Each structure stands twice: as structure tokens, then as C-alpha cells.
Amino acid sequence: MTDQANVQCVLVNRPKGVAQAQDFKLVAGDMPDPAEGEIQVRNHFLSVEPAMRGWIADTGNYSAPVGIGEVMRALAAGEVITSRHPDYRPGDWVTGWFGWQEIATVPASKVVRKVRESDLPLSASLGILGINGVTALLALTKVGQPKAGDTVVVSTAAGAVGSAVGQIAKILGCRTVGIAGGARKVRACIEDFGFDAAIDYKAGPIDAALEAACPSGIDVYFDNVAGAISDAVYRQLALRARVVVCGTASVADWTDWPSGPRVERILLTQRARMEGFIIFDHAADYEGAVARLAGWVRDGRLTYREDILEGMEACPDALAGLYRGENEGKRLIRLVPA
User: Fold this and answer.
1) What mean pLDDT, rounded, does the chain reach?
2) What is the pTM of this model?
3) Using only C-alpha atoms, what is the Rg of the chain?
């Protein structure tokens, strides 16, 4: 074991609802030498995901919760500095489940992919060319199944996933309507991400604005929020609409089943379909999706924003800040200066 300390961000409390800064702690962890089959990665960027709320929740989720005292589960991008696995060598750039820490010593199975897009920023491998962009592309095309001319409505439309969904839908020939919070984010939907229309949910009930923006109904709804916003969208689903359930960001606590309008009647009368999407179910399609996304980025058809915090000290409050709506674009934590 080396003498060098490894700063890590660990979970110290099991939160109810969105985790706050006091639920995490920075510690000086060990940095063991890699065992056979392991690699050691110096993390350059750490990812902050809305889904992290579920990864540490005390209620059921699609993955085992992060344990108290464990390094916070997170995707990261960095450089291999030591390898005891034949597929990796020092100097390789990789993304993977390396956690919120400076140095990750992990089995090679934790690697998601080697970063081959050397002409594009490494940070993009955690956003538009990572889990966010891949989720946007695969969820929209596999579940939403948009056709040219469809009206596609996207919630959290200025966020890392939502902004990609809107642009991909435009590439596929659809008309796009974004829902975002605040005038600045609404303006970004139109000016930066090319939505045909955008609605500010913070300005009041959105039913009338949705009806005006979608006079023929909504063919595809990409849902990142659940709650009252989605209730308004469901009321205007078109015949044989498809609803992609990708997130529930507006619901702070699932301990008690939240109350609200029932969707069964509208699904029945409109013969609509609603389906959840989890990226972990689609690993076989990941590499092909990245290649497609990278091509669109290179030719200027797909753009993105990043919200970059600096240093391990930013980790404890990073998730809470995401849910406070502070970020404009993909939230990342940079550990190694450019």
C-alpha cells in the first residue's frame, strides 16, 4: 500500500428525500496497489446525477443502496495510472463506476468504456457522450419511437438529458416542446437547444400553454419529473401516444405513495403506452449510441452545456444543488485542472 492519501467522499447518513451536504463527509482514504485484474485510475471528472438520490435512498430502488461509510457511487472519467489487467495500460482514458474519490483502485469490470473520442473534451464522456446522452438517445428511440412530424414534449428540457432529447427529436424530424423552470432556462431551450416552443412551469399552471403549443396533442412525452407537470401533459396525450418515464425529480420523498390524478383512463381512451427506462438494461447498445452521438456533436447538430464545480470540496453539496436547480447543463466536479 502506498503512503499517499486518497480523498474520498463517503455517505454518513441515510437521507429521507434529497441528500444534503451533512449526509456526506470527506475523508482521507487508503490507496492500495491494484490486485490482479484491477486498475488504478486518477479521476479527472466526477459526475453528479439526479439518479443518485435513488442510489442512497432508504426505499426500494433498481440497485442496492450505497452503504453508510462507503464511497459515494458515481461515474467518473480519468486516466489509468497503474494496471494489472491485460486490456488496460497506463495512459488509457476511461469512464466507469469509480466513485467520488481522487484515485480509484477497482476491478476492470467497473470500467464502462475506453474514451476514444480524443478530439472531443474528456468531460463530454460523462454527459452528452455518457450516461446522459446515451439515455436520451436510447430511451427516446426505443421507448418513445418518434416518427417524423410527431410532437415531442420534454420535461427538464434544459437539463443534460432533456436538452439532448429535444435535439435528437429535432434531428429525427419531430416538433419539440420543452418544459423548464425559469425564464433563463426557457430561453436556453429555444436559443441553445432548438426547441420549437418552451414553457416555464414556474410561471403557473401549464395546461393552457401546453394546449397552445400542442394543438394536435402530444405524441411522445419524455418524462423526467413526474408530479403536477406530468399530470398536465397526460391530459393532452394524442391517440397512441408514448410516454417515456425516465425520472421523478419533482417528487421529493417516495416513503408515502404520492397522491395525484390517475392516468389509467387517459391511457385507455387514447390507447397510449407508458414505459420506464433504466440505462443499465441497455449495455449492449451503449457503444453504438456513443458513436452516433459523437458524430452529431462533431457536425454541430448536437450541442451541450456543462456546469463544472471545482475540487473534492464541492462533492457534499453537489447533489442537493442539482435538486435546487442551480446547474445549467450537465453537473460535473473537476479534480485535475485543465
Assistant:
1) 93
2) 0.89
3) 20
